[in-house]
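Limitations

Structures in this collection are predictions, not experimental determinations, and the ligand pose is part of the prediction. Treat each record accordingly. The example that follows, with magnesium ion as the small molecule, is included so readers can see exactly what is and is not provided: the inputs are given verbatim, and the output is the predicted complex.
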Amino acid sequence: MSKRIDVKDLNVYYGDFRAVEGVTMNIEPKSVTAFIGPSGCGKSTFLRTLNRMHEVIPGARVEGEVLLDGDDLYGPGVDPVAVRTHVGMVFQRPNPFPTMSIRDNVLAGVRLNGRKLSKADSDSLVEQSLQGANLWNEVKDRLGKPGSGLSGGQQQRLCIARAIAVKPDVILMDEPCSALDPISTLAIEDLIEELKENYTVVIVTHNMQQAARVSDKTAFFNIAGTGKPGKLIEYADTTTIFNNPGQKSTEDYVSGRFG
Ligand SMILES: Nc1ncnc2c1ncn2[C@@H]1O[C@H](COP(=O)(O)OP(=O)(O)OP(=O)(O)O)[C@@H](O)[C@H]1O
Ligand SMILES: [Mg+2]
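Predicted complex:
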């Protein structure tokens, strides 16, 4: 079930270094939100705080609140592993388990959560997840073959199938198309469009056309200089960010005049 995310005054640190400063933002359910901004402005760092992946780095921590339908992900007693089942993540490089079969790759997250499924339930979950990732027709006759035997675009859709198999509320994607060719990129973009019917989707992208094509809202992050924290500069409807931004730096960035 798609859920809303409310971030309140979030600061994100690596040790003493504050990488992201004072982000407040509300992300609607059943929508696609794009994070854009120059390299190093903290997009990935901030994204990883939304499913408690940031803190796996030694010395990394956050201040502030991230609420998922009102529940603070950083509240006392909250299990980060449970958080990650509600908020799934897809990475820049497709990372299927290479020796595992396509079928087992889809089930990997579910098994990690300790869920035991009958053969029939596994079969239907595999089909449903691969259908949901628009990959079923391409792989249905070779589910027992290794995931590494797929093309890059297919591997990325396999990773999306793995993410949706655990039935999350939110799917985070960090530059999911940057390693893909234009055709596979369009396939993933179509898929993102479909995923928003059931999930809250957040995507980091350096591709302005992609942000304009797939997202409902866009958040522009920027950084004042090396060693300075990244900040959320402007967050609005994607059409506003691209056609009528409120800040000069947003306009410069989306029109390619940055730097
Ligand atoms: N593991 C880490 N330890 C220390 N500092 C880090 C770590 N990861 C990232 N940083 C720093 O945090 C800042 C933000 O990095 P981040 O990767 O979030 O930027 P980004 O906006 O995702 O950039 P890109 O567009 O290049 O992916 C940078 O200054 C980066 O050097
Ligand atoms: Mg990044």
